[in-house]
Design goal:
elongated, 2-enoyl-CoA Hydratase, Chain A, domain 1, 8-stranded mixed beta sheet, 19% strand, alpha/beta
Amino acid sequence: MKFLKFKNEKYEEQLKSIPHNFAVAHDEEKNESTLTIYGIIGDSWWDDSTSAADVDMALKQAGSNDVVIHLNSPGGDAFDGIAIYNRLKKHEGKVTVHVDGWACSAASVIAMAADELIMGAGSMIMIHEASTIVWGTKNHFRKEADVLEKLEDGIIDIYMMKANIEREEIKTMVDNETWFSANEAVEIGFATSTATSSTVEDNEEITQLKTQMQALQNELDQLKNTEPKNPTPVKQNRAVRIF
């Protein structure tokens, strides 16, 4: 298993403490399915994580519905994250992901599958090197290092589907373990918007509509004021019809 190992130790215990919650709700009237993915990504005997099989089953039930995902995860198994990413990319309906808290490691890969990725207030994305546990000879270690490098290349390919910077910059960010705030995720191209920016845009649209309505009302008032109070009656000529 290729799994998490944070370089930034101060966040490690917080991330591990995110409680597992995988929930699915289908709204046939709206043609929309909502998935909640909280906690570790991967397969487990104790049902305390969300696997690629869980997501696959939920999407089969969703049919062609649009999918809304609420994500808060420290990551987990890299290959489960990649499988979930590919499964979401094949889904017929629109995929919207809300990062409610953190989308780290394997969860950051899942987030990249979104047609629309919305960062919640205070939310973060984290990308880093893949890691694993190896026991054996020097050849075992060398082979495992080769596998990890190939795995990272594939994950960087996924990030580059969204990123608006050069591949080498992303690779450096992966090597150094990089955290992105909500606004930084938008700036680099990972996210499409933040929850706060969406609210501002909505408020601006409402303000513009109010301004337009007020302008129309002013024009109507001006027209009323220019109309003559006692209009002169117009004489009508009656035509005589001969049958």
